[in-house]
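Course assignment 3, question 2. Fill in each field.
Student: A.L.
Task: Predict the tertiary structure for the chain below.
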Amino acid sequence: MLNNTAMTGNVENMAQRNRQILAMPNVRVFYQKKGRAKYISHLDITRCMQRALKRAGIPVWYTQGFNPHMYLTFALPLALGYESECECMDFRLSEPMDLETVKERLGKALPRDMAVTKVALQQAKPQEIVQAEYELRFFCNDPAQLISALTAFCEKPELIVMKRTKKGEKPVDLKPEFQLLEHWQEEGCAVFRARFTAGQKNINPTLLTDLFLKENNMQDVLVQVLRKQIYLADGSVFE
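Answer field:
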């Protein structure tokens, strides 16, 4: 059996090791989530990433205590049914590993329709996010007419919608919460690029699209949402 001195030494060594790990910067993985992967919920994405990191043999730091678990954080979790080119996940390594190796190994371990695009050290904090840019695709018979209708709709002085919160539903004016940047049409499809408030106050683009389709009696129009980028208050890209 270990004597008290040896046990104390082991505890101190473990504590020192943990302090060293916590002093290491977070690793940030950027990845795409498209195709069938858009139907994977955020909770299942977390489980998927945990399994992928284990399969890839990446030394991820685990929390301490009675129930140690892999500590992962996700900035601005994506709504179910949305696609994205800029999802990100943060974690801390328990021992040094080249970031290109992390990218290569994790990329091979992810399921189809998910792809790692970049691995870097964390720069900005998720709390600094203020906007997210989306591409909204409306599949319809007359794209030109839909573009005209949505453009006119967005020029209204107010766009009041009921937004669900933790304290229940409350009315929200969407007018100051988004910007239409550009639009174009493709065969059978009207496409809009827009930025929405995100982060501490997160505005789901579906609030706008659902309100527009309902007021214009276009509920049969299919809408696809693709998140293109995430931005900070100074207009720079979230890194």
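Instructor remarks: The helical segments are 4-23, 42-56, 99-109, 143-153, 205-215. The mean pLDDT is 91.
Grade: pending
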